[in-house]
Each structure stands twice: as structure tokens, then as C-alpha cells.
Amino acid sequence: MTSAYDRYRAADLDVPDGAWAWQLHGAGEDNMGKDDGPELLPVPTPDADHMLVRIDSVGLCFSDVKIMRQGGSHPKLYNRDLAHDPTRLGHEVSLTVIEVGDHLKDRYHAGQRLAVQPDIYQDGKSTAYGYTIPGGLIQYHLMGAEMLETDDGACLLPLPDSFGYAEASTLEPWGCVMAAYTQRRRLEPKGGGTMWIVGRPGDEREYDFSSGLDAPATIVLTDVPASVARLVEATSATVVVRDGIGTDDFQALVDELTDGTGFDDIVMLDPRSADTVGAVATHIARRGTLNMVGETALDGLVSTDVGRLHYDYTAYVGGRGPDIAASYGEARNRCDLRRQGVTVFVGAGGPMGLMHVQRAIQQADGPRTIVATEVSDERLKSLEDRLAHLAESNGCELITFNSQTSEVSLHDFVMGLTDDRGADDVVVSVPIADVMAEADTLMRSDGMLVFFAGVPNGTLAPVNLSEVYLDNAQYTGTSGLTIHDQQQVVDLATRGELSPGSIVGAVGGMRAAKDGLQALVDGSYSGKVLIFPQIDDLPLMGLDELEEKLPEVAAKLGPGNTWNGEVEKALFDSQLGG
């Protein structure tokens, strides 16, 4: 006998006349839905340019909470009047195509399973599914050009049959994690850009610039050695000389020569003053580079805009010289975790932190010692339950540390673990500047610090940028993802090298969506909260609650009470009458 889950997977179920949906009618949780519940909307019939899709699962994210709280004032809603033009939350979505309009039948077919890539640009303008475009907290809805004809093509990823719905909903957050370890920074001088070379009066070193100096259209010189002036004069660039200017003059220079957008590339030669480096760094353009070349440490830490490292992909590169060009390029500037190294994950107990730790554990050429830090023993226990078996099977040492209860500081703990060298890599999933600054002290001189959690642009933290040019330390940050990052997750999972469903922490039906958002605010679950819209009345419950409430489902859980395809099948069969 065919089970309810099998019939569901085959899309062999009647489409109802109405679909339950959680619409956001304004800022605040009271404007989520109607009368504290979802609304029943008619299920539309697609025209030639649309297709009807069934939403199978939705992962909830703290970004959803931000939209709910901010309403139409959220940056991606562009002051939208939600009372008259509501939106829907839910961007971590797995869906099934139900009916296809005539103009789309060459690309899509009924029964096809897809995941959403929600970070969308239309004619250069940032939109997003679950933000500007109403998202997945609905049972059925139409899709058209807003998703299928974006600047990057269709924002839908075909799924293999082996993928469950919950796994597919984790592709968006997993894709963000993967993106954190792929090179998003520009690491060569920009063609046609504007470069500013800042020297130190009295420096007469003979510098070279073996490649890349022919890229800028304009080169601005401030107090450079004669050797550099000769190199620049030999190029075809427009040369502007501004000697003797101080930090108070920098903004006027930026306004004059870049219309206030900042320099595409900045080179600082023999820097000595941390304050000057900080003032210069303020004027890096989005996706710009700051190349520091020298052999003497700065006189202190640099107040560094850690928000821009995350959101604007500003790149800090450097070297000892004398070849200025040697600082650039991917060969010198790594973005992935050091093989066989020691990695510290700060804020490891939340859903995204857990994913970073799991990726490191399952990475074939990744670190061998992993320190997961958190300020909650409960979350650390959940992390150990969920991931210890993976660490053991992959030959990793997994160490947990709670700085709130330990007798030693995190810094002293890491130094003791590494014979005072520091960690090879530190990954920060906590959006607090002081935590980011502390993380910098945990890193060895040639290590990498990854700012995964975003803080607003303009947020400053003291950072040891001397190590960038003295020992090739790396500071990286990423925001968002591409569909290629999600495809990487699919490929790894298909090869058995990643188990994306292990991150699921709680599940619920359609009416539990609002409870799920509150659970994010309360930090109730360490893993991802998954909503199954086609299951109506399933209360929100953690996987550790399944044994009491749904024992036949709990029996299918994997090691550490982890989610898998068999659990999903058992859940759907229990709720849909299989």
C-alpha cells in the first residue's frame, strides 16, 4: 500500500480551493496573520507566464524576526505600506511544481521539486523572496518573472530525488555558510579604478610593483618614495599628487577624486601609525582593497570597520615588500580553514554556528581540532549530542568551552591548547563588536578571522592589522549567497560528504509558524526551526520531544537525535494519515 508520504512526494493529492497563509500586515507580531492565526486565501490558477507551486517546508531565520519587527521600514521593503500591500515571511523554502503555464513548460513540469535562492536582483535593485517578494509561509502560490527572470536567471534550484524537504530548506543557510569560505573579496587592483598610494615621509626604500600597476585609470600619490613615483610615471594612468595632507584632509580628497565613494585600491607604504591606518581605511570603496607593505609593526591596534568587512567585502592585504604586487592574489590570501589546524568557533551553539562546526568536522581537508564556544551549557550539550558522533567518525577532536562558567578566559584556554601560538582560524557568529575584538586575540599571527555575523557598517573594533603585512593574517567576511553555493551543498550531500538535515532542531505545522518565530527570539532550540505548511495543526516541538509526543517518528532519528529522510517520512505518514 502506498504511504501518505509517497503520495505526497508524487504530488498525487488534490489541490484545495483555499490555502492557509501567514501574511505580514505591518510592524510587530500582532500584525503577523489575522486574529493570531493564518488566513485562508484562494488558490489561484496560473496563466501562461506563471506556475502554481506547493510549499513543502520553510526554515525560519532570525531575519524573519527582523522583518516582522520592522515591517515596511525594513531596508528591503523600501517603506512599503504593508497594511494595503502585505508580504509574507519565509525564504528558506522547498517547493513542488503543481501546474505550469504554457510559456514555462519548456523549463518546468508538474511534480518537479525545487529549492529557492532568495537573494534576488531585478534590474540591479535588491529584492528578495520572503521580503519584497512574498515568501513561503503559505501552502500554495504563483511564481512568475519575479523569481524566474532575475538578473541572474531563475532563482530556483532543481533537487535530486534523494533530498528530503527539510534538507532542501536548509540549503539557503548552508549556502551562506559555504559562501563564508569562498573568495568574495577582490584581490587584484581594479581595472579602470582609482588607486591611492600613501607613503611615509622619510621612507626611501626601493619598491617594485611587478604587476597590477597598469590597472588603475587614476593613481593618487601622497608622500611616496621616489622609487614609487618613477613606477607610476611609467604607466598610462592619470597621476594626481597630493603631498603633505593630513587625516583631516582625507574626506575632501575622496570627494574630489571619487565622488565620495572611496578609493578602489589603497596602498600604504611602511605604515607606522595605527590611527593613520584607521583613518585611511575609512576611505576604501565597497569591494575595495587596502594593501599595507612594511616591515615594522604599527604602534597599536587599528579601529577597523568590521561591519564593512562583512557587508562591503573590503579586503585587507599586505606583505613585507619590496614588491608591492606580492600582497595581491588568491594564492597568498586564503579563505578556507587551514588543513589539520585548530579552529575556534565563537557563538557555536546557534543554528548558524552549528553549521559552521559541522562543516569543519565533515570537511575532508579541514581542521583536526575544533573548539566550540558558547555562553550556555545547554547549547553546548546540544552541540555535543548532535555533532560528537560526526567528529569521532571523521577523526576530529571536538572541544566545547563556556567562558561564563570556566575558571580561565577563552584567550588563556586557546593559548594553553596551542602552546601560545593561537588558533589557525577563528570564526565569529556573534554580532557584537567586543566579541569580534576578543576573537582577534585568539588568532595566531598568520591565522584567519572570519566575521560571519553582521554588525552595522561603521561598527569599529580594535584589530591587530600589523599581522596582515608582517605574517599574512587574513580578515574576511561575507553576506548572502548565490545559487552556486546551494548547489555545492547539494553536491556534497549527494556524495555523502555532508548531512545538511542534521541541523534541524524543531518542527511544526502551519499554525505553529508564529510560535517558531518566538522560539527564535527566545533561543529555545539550538538547531533550525522547520515549518511544514501542508501539515496544519502539528504543534512546534524540538526533536528531543518527539519520543514523548510522536514515538513512532522519534524511533527513526539518527545518532544524537538528528533528522534524516526516514524521520520525515514517518512524520508525514503520522500527520497525513499514512
UniProtKB/TrEMBL annotation:
Residues 351-494 form the Alcohol dehydrogenase-like C-terminal domain. The lineage of its organism: Bacteria, Bacillati, Actinomycetota, Actinomycetes, Propionibacteriales. Keywords: Oxidoreductase. The keyword NAD does not apply. Its cofactor is Zn(2+). Pfam families: ADH_N, ADH_zinc_N. It comes from the Bacteria. InterPro entries: ADH-like_C, ADH-like_N, GroES-like_sf, NAD(P)-bd_dom_sf, Zn_alcohol_dh. PANTHER family: L-THREONINE 3-DEHYDROGENASE. Residues 48-145 form the Alcohol dehydrogenase-like N-terminal domain. This is Alcohol dehydrogenase. GO terms for molecular function: oxidoreductase activity.
